[in-house]
Amino acid sequence: MHRCSMYDELIIVRNFNVLRYYTQCIFRLNNNNPHIIMKCSIPKGTRDFLPLEMARRNYIFETIRNVFKMFAFEPIETPSIENLSTLMGKYGEEGDKLLFKILNSGDFMKDVDFSQDYHKVVPHICERGLRYDLTVPFARFVVQHRDDLVLPFRRYQLQPVWRADRPQKGRYREFYQCDADMIGSESLLNELELVQMIDAVFSQLNVGVTLKINNRKILAGIAELVGAPNLLIDITVAIDKLDKIGLDAVKAELAERGLTQPQIELLNPIFELNGSPADKLNQLEKLFEGIEVGQKGVSEMRELFGYIQSVQPSCSVELDLTLARGLNYYTGAIFEVKANNVSIGSICGGGRYDNLTGIFGMPNVSGVGISFGADRIYDVLTELNGFPEGLSQSARVLFINFGEAEQAYVLKCAAQFRANGIATLVYPDATKMKKQMDFANRKNIPFVLFVGESEITNHTVTIKNMLTGEQQTLPLLDAIAMVK
Amino acid sequence: MHRCSMYDELIIVRNFNVLRYYTQCIFRLNNNNPHIIMKCSIPKGTRDFLPLEMARRNYIFETIRNVFKMFAFEPIETPSIENLSTLMGKYGEEGDKLLFKILNSGDFMKDVDFSQDYHKVVPHICERGLRYDLTVPFARFVVQHRDDLVLPFRRYQLQPVWRADRPQKGRYREFYQCDADMIGSESLLNELELVQMIDAVFSQLNVGVTLKINNRKILAGIAELVGAPNLLIDITVAIDKLDKIGLDAVKAELAERGLTQPQIELLNPIFELNGSPADKLNQLEKLFEGIEVGQKGVSEMRELFGYIQSVQPSCSVELDLTLARGLNYYTGAIFEVKANNVSIGSICGGGRYDNLTGIFGMPNVSGVGISFGADRIYDVLTELNGFPEGLSQSARVLFINFGEAEQAYVLKCAAQFRANGIATLVYPDATKMKKQMDFANRKNIPFVLFVGESEITNHTVTIKNMLTGEQQTLPLLDAIAMVK
């Protein structure tokens, strides 16, 4: 029903005189025949996924999805295309530039004044764009369906997003996000469950990770401590670089960003914090005497780390005051996950936001959420050689095709294998045996089945294990049990 | 990691003076608070899917995907965004208009001559577009990855496609296609397997369907029979309307489309064909004396219907010469599936094409495929009330939250439920019991769990069946076994 004419213009491709229309394609001559195969390509920053990659990606998605389900998150989907009025202005000026914008349909151009700056032209020719993340569409979704949602509400969403970013290693223009958010409850048990989910996903994937946790309120407390609450972002951005550039360089940057020398000295106890999360929180509590927001942050983290201790996650969980991601919108806990033995940046992140739907004028919707970066997790598992064997098996058994005489029996057998949940292939053509066996080898099909006159008479099949070379003749049901 | 600042512009929304920027939004005053909730919306022809719809859609997708897997089809995915050079000219002039085109990035407009006709402007401002179907991207995929594919190759692909069509009931601008194609073999066993797959999908979904089969070569034979091979499309388009408009009107249309009265009379035996598929094929064989293409069509259909008889599908399979879908590209068998008791048009279709990749200059890749229309199948199941119960269950059990004293034990119990594959919710706040029970009822959670002092002491939980009202106190493992 969804297929449309794709051969209307076939004649054009075959007509060498009009090949010039395909100026963006590179042609190469195929010596075996007179046809010219076009060099097909896809847009920069996008990817095709072949069966093996699909199997590996689905392994990651299924692991994440299953953990989301166990924690009773419910799936939703939103359209790929949103109104630009929903998307624009939500990701900062830089984000607006990275939105893929869709040209309006029809002959709308004649009324547009193209002599203006192109920024002013765009809104007249594009009303819709591709979603940039899953968070703003979720906020829009919550506002739009607020009468249908029972709070507290937990949703998960695994869908692609698009960004007109400059493509580079590990950064694509189309990629999947795997988000889980819980809204309508301020309880720190929600944060705990996110920690448990992170732990479950990476345990199941066999990836050793470190989860770093911080709290926006502690960072605000630090800014108050030095008497520069307006420099909160500057201070945390500088502190965030401690690992990379060292203490002296951080202090230099703090001075550059407007802190006085005495203010910088006030930060020394922060740089000298040490011990377990509980120890650090005790030291912070003393420093934050009289600083309400800092005390609130310490008490939240104390409660959360208390919960964490009681559930004993298998990954290591750290309190890391240099963690400064998402400061524009996170208001409480901040999470970041890094793989222990692969240097690739964060593979999961999230945090608490007090005002998800404020951008659409609906106040008081607090939430907390995380986002798994499936593409980076894929890279980590590749580097660790961590994908299970046999993920991409297309067919588990192949029936060799000897021709018409055996066909009815083979079809009956194949149907029984399939009814037992076994992915089954009947070689479609009665070609040479060697070609069919080659096919089984190249496709890594583990069992090959032969059916001849005696098998038909005795209701058996002859089955060959392609790995061991072992071959035996068995009743049909025994063969099914053997490969199942 | 994929979250970007969404609150940068929060201040704008809150500042009533600049609300005029959101001219496309309708605002309404919320009497309970001074905030203004924007009327959020999504583009025409697109949809949000809430958890219940998601569960139902996934039920359809999973059924289809599982059948594809049993027949050893392998998954692939292609990018949503393709180069317009790949897409344009493949769907006819009408299709080109329905492509969603993506505006190039950056300030590229200054060099464009906007005084031209807009058709000439578009290629200068848009180089990429959203895919229109999964067939052309698959053809592009086969050409691009031809060195990595082992033929015969079977792929399935479940992804959304986009068309700037006028939205109407059952027709969307973003919708999923579920395609399975097998390439590199001309054996009619492939066609048979598609028939078996159609039968399996609709049997598993419990939808009674009729599968209609035709063959392009038979239609070509008919056109030759009346001496008007050039009018093949006209003849079949007219015959296609037999059911709707009746024989006289069809004959009038045939005359209008250029057939002479004697030619129309030659079609009478075609209109009078009757009996089983085998009977019809015998009658056709006689009519097609000396018409090679027609004879070939008859022999192909005879072989296919022979196979079909040997596997005895549970759906009814008809030879229907009025079936004329996809004539622009199908070269052999043509399939169409209709639900027996719901009038909604076709819910699955497909056919044999001799030259999938010819559009990209790569010849001799024959294939056959089908596409399931998930959206219409959804509508059919809705009308038949055919979705299984309990699909959308978010949580199977809810732990009531009584406060801190029980928390550690509750968290331990919840972890064990989850480890046993049971979707488990701990109510995040220690609010009033009534509110928590209300929540369980509104969310249709079937079991509610209570943990107090005595449960902790005895390592038990008290479990309430929300349907029957029955309540009992059980050891933890027994409770898990009960709800599993």
Describe the structure.
- Two copies of one chain form a homodimer.
- Chain A has 484 residues and is α+β, with helices and mostly antiparallel strands.
- Among the domains of chain A are: 209-339, Bira Bifunctional Protein, Domain 2 (BirA Bifunctional Protein, domain 2, 2-Layer Sandwich), CATH 3.30.930.10; 397-483, Anticodon-binding domain (Rossmann fold), CATH 3.40.50.800.
- Chain A is built from 20 helices and 18 strands.
- The first copy, chain A, has helices spanning 10-14, 51-70, 84-87, 92-98, 118-125, 135-144, 188-204, 216-225, 232-239, 242-245, 247-256, 261-266, 268-271, 277-287, 292-311, 374-383, 404-419, 433-442, 453-458, 476-483, and strands at 27-29, 36-38, 74-75, 81-83, 101-103, 126-130, 153-162, 174-183, 209-215, 316-319, 333-339, 346-353, 367-372, 397-399, 424-426, 447-450, 460-465, 471-475.
- In chain A, the strands form four sheets. Chain A has an eight-stranded mixed beta sheet.
- In chain A, strand 11 (333-339) and strand 12 form a beta hairpin.
- In chain A, helix 8 runs antiparallel to helix 15 (292-311), helix 9 (232-239) runs antiparallel to helix 11 and helix 14 (277-287) packs antiparallel against helix 15.
- Chain A is globular, with a radius of gyration of 30 Å.
- At the A-B interface, helix 1, strand 2, helix 2, strand 3 and strand 4 of A face helix 1, strand 2, helix 2, strand 3 and strand 4 of B.
